[in-house]
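Reopening: structure tokens for the guanosine-5'-diphosphate complex, inputs below.
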Amino acid sequence: TDPAIIRNFCIIAHIDHGKSTLADRMLHLTGVVSDRDMRAQYLDRMDIERERGITIKSQAVRMPWEFEGTNYALNMIDTPGHVDFTYEVSRSLAACEGALLLVDAAQGIEAQTLANLYLAMENDLTIIPVLNKIDLPAADPEKYAKELANLIGGDPEDVLLVSGKTGVGVEALLDRVTQMVPAPVGDVNAPARAMIFDSVYDAYRGVVTYVRMVDGSLKPREKIQMMSTRAVHELLEIGVSSPEPKPSKGLSVGEVGYLITGVKDVRQSKVGDTVTTSQKPAEEALPGYTDPKPMVFSGVYPIDGSDYPILRDALDKLKLSDAALNYEPETSVALGFGFRIGFLGLLHLEIITERLRREFDLDLIATAPSVIYEVTTDDKKTITVTNPSEFPGGKILEVREPVVKAAILAPKDYVGAIMELCQSRRGTLLGMEYFGEDRVELRYNIPLGEIVFDFFDHLKSRTQGYASLDYEPAGDQAADLVKVDILLQGEQVDAFSAIVHREKAYAYGVLMTERLKELIPRQQFEVPIQAAIGARIIARESIRAIRKDVLAKCYGGDISRKRKLLEKQKEGKKRMKMVGRVEVPQEAFIAALSGD
Ligand code: GDP
Ligand code: MG
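Re-run output (same inputs, fresh job):
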């Protein structure tokens, strides 16, 4: 294909502003998906994506479009809008020359609208502003067109008005893409260089690698080489998605398509790597992406210990298609055998645990999410702690915690409530800016550890759902953090240890000791429940002993009644965990962790 007729673009937007619906509409309009095959969110292939209405993996589709008598090939890349998947967004952006900046005409600009816009600008993309959902009665295109034009520095008249749902304005939108988005440039005769922007594991076809050709071309049966590892694979199939895979005779400059080599693991075909040929290798790789790093860790345990092998296999399978998933085995006194899993963020955590539950039928419990701490001990050694149980005892010189730069957008009436929340989470205000008439952006530095618990829920409830949040890593800082342990009769219960700010240690201790007191049944003896920092007890409760022996009632009575009672107790013990001498039903631990 001649690069002059190629247009590579993506759609960027805040979550729920209608990217996927608009993408579907385009597939329909350009005829690549027939009426018969059309279903909502054609591109959101995973069940979870469809149910939650969010996009997790990017998708690239090629569509034909005629404009002023010329036939163009439009490559559209749908991107996920959520913060956890920013790394997917930035890859997709690097494969494009233009971006549709989509904004809900009833909502206006939100936190991820800005975050995605900045990413697009960093990639030098041509930006086309679009207001979507203009069919909604609550839509206020005039107001928000002004807001959007202000933001990107343009004329409100140039903002396109569309509805992905009804199709209004979508043809004009495709015309605008053809007109405004620059054609790709590259050297047709140079050695091949293709950038991998996505790699997906498919049970039937193995790894499918999505690439954007930058220079030269690739053909079927060629020996391709990954520039980072020098590994050579035979190219079994090459083609374009439209949106079903369609094998082709090759890909050349500017084209977006897929490669299949028969490798079985996405890590062998790494996102950000450059593909060349072994016969005529390129000298220099394209600028790569930074590897996504896990930010949040949680222990994940099967509720039924015998499911452990299933959990392990399930994680191995998910890893094939999710290069960002990291895990290693872990054991816990309270919860048995499980895995410590590193996630990109809370949504990633939620999605992985839900896929484990759903696709592998596992009953799971996850410990409270923790971030990565750097702890320097008295002997000047620094260790990385992702699990509170690894927090060193003894004297500590310094603890460093990750911080993020958070942007919160909300109507101005909520500024007070948001500031209060951020302050209680140790946030520092960096700045404040008004967009349009009534919308404010607040920028904060906040410890990530203060966000991972329930920050977003609180933010939503304090703003009646109107606030939106985006954040990016902003290094780390020293903080007065301590580990709080929870002890049952003097024995530490590992799953409940937490690393918290010293000022919040007492509140955490009281909360957990009270919770456990409610949940743990009485024993033959009194059981003290304590919260401690090192050797210092900061909170305590106790479970009183059972006053009468249950068997005493049966003393001298019917022997069969006595046996029945014993059997009943035995059954109840099935999922008992021993913490020292104390018997605790696993359900109690689970309930205490989930805060029910
Ligand atoms: P995404 O998260 O940006 O991919 O958004 P979706 O395409 O999943 O859309 C989010 C919600 O908005 C869904 O309930 C859609 O049905 C709805 N929606 C999307 N586009 C339109 C539109 O043009 N008009 C109306 N009324 N609703 C829309
Ligand atoms: Mg979507």
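The longest helix spans residues 502-519. The pocket of magnesium ion (ligand 2) is lined by residues 19-20, 44, 54-55 (CB under 6 Å). Marking as resolved unless the reporter disagrees.
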